[in-house]
Amino acid sequence: IIYSVSSGHIYELGDFEQMLGCVSKYPATLADYEKEFTEIQLKDGISDHTTDFELYNKYKPRIYECHYKLSDSTGLDAGDFARTPEQLAEVL
Asked: Which of 36, 82, 76, 85 is nearest to 59 (CA)?
């Protein structure tokens, strides 16, 4: 189970095995993540809302999650913070 959390919130983990650092801003910046989370937390896991792979490339998280879209996607989840298959191929 993977659980995305925002800094400043306290959660009882219970059965959750992994927490991902998540900034609930669309789009977010590298500075937003670095303000909210420690380097260790960002290397553990990220729920990425940035527009590029700078956050991923800097921290190389053990677990990486991001919004996904097709090139012709529209709507709220198709913003520039969402990755296309071609963009994901850059880091896979």
From this structure: 36
Residue with tokens 């529209």: 74
Residue 51, phi then psi, degrees to nearest 5? -100, 0
Amino acid symbol at 71:
S
Reply yes or no: is the peptide bond before residue 85 cis, omega within 30 of 0. Answer: no
Q: How far apart are CA 46 and CA 80, in angstroms?
A: 17
pLDDT tens digits, one per residue of 29-88: 999 999 999 999 999 899 999 999 999 999 999 989 999 999 899 988 889 999 999 999
Residue 56 CB-half CA count within 13 A: 18
